[in-house]
């Protein structure tokens, strides 16, 4: 599982969020990287009514160096990053509703799905007027997706309450709308200070979770 970070240098790769057509709350949701080292990914949250979308941006070279062994399928690791982030979102928040055997089964399912990324649904995204091809996987009432068509970053997303096809993205030029400065060092303390909406979480396991351990 990805490490959490503490006082890492400011982000040195491009961030992508939903375009201005999305009306709702925005915030810096999560950071990926080792303590004190350059981050390899960041997630931005978007919430409106009953719909939520999280967009992830990863430094392409750094992601590959950290997660892809020589000769391994690079896109399987990219798909895993998207699917693992989404799978956590589908689980109940209460610890007593997340038995260990379910968590283990979910990780195994995510690994299997990532290895089969070529079977994922096709989707089209728009990024600042450019059409991008994306791949989508659905699980436990949510979906996750990724595109590897950008030169320097991977773009991920996962969500609920809105369909993944035809989402509109923009390169983030003003991070203040997400509650932080592009120039600041980032870590748990910075995340804790950012105002976040009260997102609804499942009260119990989804049928897809139960099937994995039945």
UniProtKB/TrEMBL annotation:
Origin: domain of life: Bacteria
The entry's protein name is: Uncharacterized protein
Q: Which organism is it from?
A: Amycolatopsis albispora
